[in-house]
Amino acid sequence: KLGLEVYDKKHGVRDKFVKELRDKFGTKLGLQFSIGGQISFDVFPKGWDKTFCLRYLEGIGEIHFFGDKTMPGGNDYEIYSHPRTIGHAVTSPEHTMRILRELFFKEEAAARPVVALPPPPPNEGQGTGTPWPAIVVLLAACAVLMQQPGF
């Protein structure tokens, strides 16, 4: 798995493959393709990317999104760059926590110690199917909700 990741970074295998799939089947079958985790790519019906959830978040003020695959073609790009979200490109859970503290807990940040999340298993991490993206989205959603009147 790690060898394939290194090879792909050097030769752009997934980028080329996803481009071919997009060109041949995207419009014809109504599919979207994006680069996923460490060695994967995602295929889903057009419109079923991460922006799908926004239709259920009407009436919420600011929506912050935190993701690691925020470049064009990455599986976070559509929601990261969506006009209804404020996108944050992050590289780790610690990076996400730092930004969350800066955005939502400015006064309290200096008084509190940094919460250390357990590290991902060896040879895993960003974009490898670990639960970190779900934790990041959950943390971001909680931070947004806590800013709402009456919460």
Describe the SSE topology.
Blueprint: H1 2-11, H2 13-29, E1 31-35, E2 41-45, E3 63-67, H3 77-80, E4 85-89, H4 93-104, H5 106-109, H6 132-146
Parallel strand pairs: 3-4
Antiparallel strand pairs: 1-2
Helix pairs in contact: 4-6
Span between termini: 44 Å
Portion in helices = 40-55%
> How is the biggest beta sheet arranged?
2 strands, antiparallel
Estimate what percentage of residues fall within beta strands.
5-15%
Secondary structural class: alpha+beta
- Give the topology string: H per helix, E per strand: HHEEEHEHHH
Structure notes:
The chain is an alpha+beta fold. Helix content is 41%, strand content 13%. The chain has six helices and four strands, in the order ααβββαβααα. Strands 1-2 form a two-stranded antiparallel sheet. A two-stranded parallel sheet has the order 3-4. β1 and β2 form a beta hairpin. The radius of gyration is 17 Å and the shape is flat. The termini are far apart. About 9% of the residues have low confidence.
Question: Summarize this, please?
Answer:
With 151 residues, the chain is an alpha+beta fold. The protein has helices at 2-11, 13-29, 77-80, 93-104, 106-109, 132-146, and strands at 31-35, 41-45, 63-67, 85-89. The strands form two sheets. A two-stranded antiparallel ribbon has the order 1-2.
